Description:
The protein is elongated, with a radius of gyration of 20 Å. The longest helix is centred in the C-terminal third of the chain and has 25 residues, at 140-164. The protein has a single domain (2-164), classed as Lipoprotein like domain (Double Stranded RNA Binding Domain, 2-Layer Sandwich), CATH 3.30.160. The chain is 34% helix and 32% strand. Residues 10-24 have low confidence and may be disordered. It has 167 residues and is α/β, with parallel strands linked by helices. It has helices at 2-16, 51-67, 140-164; strands at 35-38, 42-43, 71-73, 79-95, 101-116, 124-135. Strands 1, 2, 3, 4, 5 and 6 form a six-stranded mixed β-sheet that branches.
Amino acid sequence: MRNILFILTLLFFVSSCRMSYTFRTASIDYDLTKTLAIGHFVNQAPLVYPPLEQRFNEEIKDIFTRNTKLQLVNQNGDMEIEGEIVGYELTPMAVQEDAFASETKLTMTVIMRFRNNKTEAPEMEERISANRTFPSNTMFDSVQDQLISELIDEIIDQIFNSTMANW
């Protein structure tokens, strides 16, 4: 009986934990590549949250500045990143027996294009999405800023890893 109680307690703690891994190790030849141009990501999503565009653009520049020795330039960089925010949507999830959703999913989607002008590698284009769920009985306005922060961080980590890390 004691073992069962221990296992149940352990399962509870494991299921309530959320693990997040971020890899921000750049593998850049700084002798060859010295500058990076990050274009303005315009918000083209059908559902518009006004602060989203500015927050995303500030955060993407900040992450590359903090984690690389590349100098940010406005145009004609040795490397160039550009794209658009193309999705910002709410989706009802986990429909209950009374036909109302118990959770809502917020999804953010970005199209990113990357070009390394110092190598012969072709331009890369990726569609990157991240999502978070929240209880439907929670007012979206009360959780939106926190969710946006998490989504932006996740998408920018994916952009950083796919452009700067040489796995």
